[in-house]
Amino acid sequence: MASQQNEMQIVAAASFIVMNQVLNKKKKKERRWWITRLHQRRNVASLLRDLRFQESSGQFKNFVRMSSADFEKLICLIGPKVAKKNTKFRAAIPVDERLAITLRFLATGDSYSSLDYLTGVSKQSISFIVMDVCRALIQVLKSYIELPSTPEEWTAVAADFEKKWQFPHCIGAMDGKHVEIECPPNSVSDFINYKGFFSIVLLALVDANYKFLFVDIGCQGRISDGGVFKHTKLHALLNSKKLGLPPVTSLEDSNFMAPYVIVADDAFALHENIMKPYSHQSSEIEKKIFNYRLCRARRVVENVFGICSSTFRVLRKPILLHPEKAAIVTMTVTLLHNFLRASESSNRSYCPPGTFDDDVNGECVPGLWRKHGDGSLLSLQNVPRRAKDQAKEVRGIFTQYFNSSGSVPWQHKHI
Fold first, then answer.
1. What's the mean pLDDT when you consider all of the chain?
2. Phi, psi of 252 (to 5 degrees)
3. Radius of gyration (Cα) for the chain, nearest Å?
4. Rounded CA gap, 395 and 389, in Å?
5. Which residues form the DDE Tnp4 domain (predicted)?
6. Cα–Cα distance measured from residue 117 to residue 122, given in angstroms and rounded to the nearest whole number
7. Does pLDDT of 200 surpass 60?
């Protein structure tokens, strides 16, 4: 009898709880409208049509940062990957509008809310469109950034450096930058760099023609410069002797035997294949000349970062996305840079004369990008290290060469 009463009490209590939840359950808020008037009159198509109609004015190129021909080429490449089907509820946003929205985001760095008012596409849709298109661009343009793998390919890169910057056996200029992002959730201090703001690292190797040869993006900002490089594929290939570099040969018009090297700044450790400047406290003329010649060649990578942040201004302010998505956006910018540099129709407008630093008989003429600065891109921290003797010997060989048969007429007036 007592057990039956207990069961009845339990059932009654359960029924009371269920009824209470039903009564207290909030009524689902009904939609006031299916779509707002602003989004009903989506104006991306008419905007693109008007810009193309007067393409000679340069407004279309300014809006999407490329020519109409290259814009159409990208539409054909990414179309199968980002196209959506129409439904009985609404028509899908066309591929050209999706691409235009993404390129405008990269060009300005505006928030999704700002693009909402500009395009008439909701910020929720824009957030999906930008990531979808960026991932598609990375897939179709990934061949535009390829690391040379044979001695012949590396020799061609070195020949360009020797011809344009008078630095023999140079296979690239390397540098790293902090790309500012918003504070990631639950990240504590993982992404805080030495300047105190949140960032991911963009590490790049660039050739003499201002193109990316290799990029590594996404390392946490708190990691030291040496740690950033050690986590890259480039470091692994270099240390394992699998980079496919040419054998040690003599420098031009001399008996100095030297390996092929990457030029870098103080943020990197001296290595037999990585040259960095001597300490700036050194007063020896020979060392100052080496520093000048190295920094002159390394300026290429600074110019590439500068033009990227000047053209795609999403890099000039904190990227308001999670680190993984910020890395996707940054990778898209680097691929678009190489794509536009290789384009016959866009390269002249993307990099008109005077864009990069010019060097006339040793006189540096600052490029136009320096007027805008490099935005939120911050150099990696300089940390002193003890170099191996072999690396010091290689640097000594280049120093002797630049002060003898490899000298240029104007080098002494710049030290």
1. 84
2. -55, 135
3. 28
4. 10
5. 174-338
6. 8
7. yes
